[in-house]
Amino acid sequence: MKHKILALSAVVMSALAYGQVQVSVSTGYAFASAGMKLGETVNVSETGNSYGSYGEGANVQLRGTYFFNDSFGADLSLGYLQGADQTVSEVNIPNTDINAVARARAFGASASVVYKFTNNIYGRFGALIKVGGKTEAVVSRKAAFSEAEANAFNVPVGSFSETTYTEDFHGHFPLGFVGALGYKFDLDSNFSLFVEAEYYGISLKRKDSELSEFNTNIVLPDGTVAVEGFYSLDNLPDGTVKKTTYVDDLSNTNTDPSKKLSQKVPYSSFGLNFGITYKFKKRAEK
Fold this sequence. Notes:
Blueprint: H1 2-18, E1 20-32, E2 36-43, E3 47-52, E4 57-67, E5 72-83, E6 86-93, E7 96-116, E8 121-144, H2 147-153, E9 160-171, E10 176-186, E11 191-201, E12 203-219, E13 225-232, E14 243-247, E15 259-261, E16 264-266, E17 269-279
Parallel strand pairs: 2-6, 14-15
Antiparallel strand pairs: 1-4, 1-17, 2-3, 4-5, 5-7, 6-7, 7-8, 8-9, 8-10, 9-12, 10-11, 11-17, 12-13, 12-14, 12-16
Organism: Algibacter miyuki
Pfam families: OMP_b-brl (PF13505)
InterPro entries: Beta-barrel_OMP, OMP/PagP_B-barrel
């Protein structure tokens, strides 16, 4: 046992003696990978599915890497995703227009193993988590009044309600996979540029959502606002709740609008990153 401990200690000390630390900063853009159905588009002639992933969008990353020898290293990364708009609902039918999009505003982290195939080509793979942020839904809805509704509001026929609101969705703690293949070009002994193809495989199970903005105006046929703020965040329409909780099981007799069945939403993506790396001197050199 003593000999095993000594041998392990020697390996660790050797790795630490060699150890090289480097810090990288990058930015890039990711596209949807294995997009799932996110919503529907509806017009007078047909209804179609809308596919995508909330992982699509621009990102920035800060990464620290420790190399134990010439080939193997460990990598920790923090990143932010500015997700692209994904169509959730697009309805264009007589008397009703709805445009609803959702986008990610998420912080993530990953822990990976790095392997250098050559001095210029490397790969990394590991675990990915989302550590914060939200999926933000932005909705706009116009609904024309019937003659009875126009009379009730004492406005001309052709008037309509215009509702806009924002709802923030949060999820349970997720765990996914990250893998990348990259090429680096050394500028000098400390700085290098790199480009890499990166894959994220992750989905998020919804936990709750909350309205952060809500407003309904009554608008005349010429576009003039007759009543501003008829409904607001402090005065929601009947059947509309400020906060919703998502559960796995829901009674068939449930009448509570604040509870809905949960679902998984995709964050998987495939993208390209460009960045710069600073390499500290090796311990052995010091």
